[in-house]
Amino acid sequence: MAEFYLRTESIKQSDIKRLSVVNSQDINLIQALKSSEPCLLEGSRGTGKSFLMKVSEIEIEEENPNFIPVFVAFNKSSLINTDDGLQFYHWMLAKTLKALTNKLRKKGITVSDYSAGLLSNDESDNPDLIESNLKEIVKIFEESYKGQSSVDISSLPDIEDVKEAIENICNENSIERIYFFFDEAAHVFRPEPLKKQITTN
């Protein structure tokens, strides 16, 4: 009996390529997503944007071990309700760094004490502790809909420190490029949070 999937999130990563059926336009989009230039993929819900990003992520990993793709899903933004005036920016930063540190750990990539310090606002040089702290920050933000709450963001780094940390991680591990695939950004963000995300990063 055929199995139907309504969302890409329901498909195992190992099944993505097997289920992939692409046409010439899809191939062009995948090539654009795999390029070194920023790419904004627009389209209505259910047209396969997430799936194409997942295919691109897999192909990048298959084609060059020195390229690291990081997939970040922003599908829980509507749950955020805190007293932080920059709550979306801080949540997006924590979510992105959590996805990055998780991907590096899965790849067995070493993060030096210096880079770890940059990613934690100099509060820790332990990569495992940093990932745990980021996970906790993301969790508090995403559960804030249950009742407005305050979030301790003191461990979140400045964006310039993030850039320096990523550059150091790349140099220390012979990584040529890190890709970030941001899913659900344009659909779920109101104009102001989306503007902050684009202009800050």
Description of the structure:
The protein is mostly helical. It has two domains: 1-63, no CATH class; 75-175 and 191-200, no CATH class. The protein has nine helices and two strands. The protein has helices at 16-19, 24-33, 49-63, 87-106, 113-119, 127-142, 159-172, 185-188, 191-200, and strands at residues 67-73, 177-183. Strands 1-2 form a two-stranded parallel ribbon. Helix 2 (24-33) packs across helix 3 (49-63) and helix 5 runs antiparallel to helix 7 (159-172). The longest helix has 20 residues, at 87-106. The chain is globular, with a radius of gyration of 17 Å. The N and C termini lie far apart (45 Å). The mean pLDDT is 81.
Tell me the structural class. mainly alpha
What is the percent of helical residues? 40-55%
Radius of gyration from CA coordinates: 17 Å
Number of helices: 9
Strand order of the largest sheet: 1-2
Distance between the termini: 45 Å
Please report the total strand number as a whole number.
2
Q: Spell out the helices and strands N to C.
A: HHHEHHHHEHH
Shape summary? globular
Query: Into which percentage range does the β-strand content fall?
Result: 5-15%
- Averaged pLDDT: 81
Q: How is the biggest beta sheet arranged?
A: 2 strands, parallel
How many structural domains can be distinguished in the coordinates?
2
Note poorly predicted spans.
none
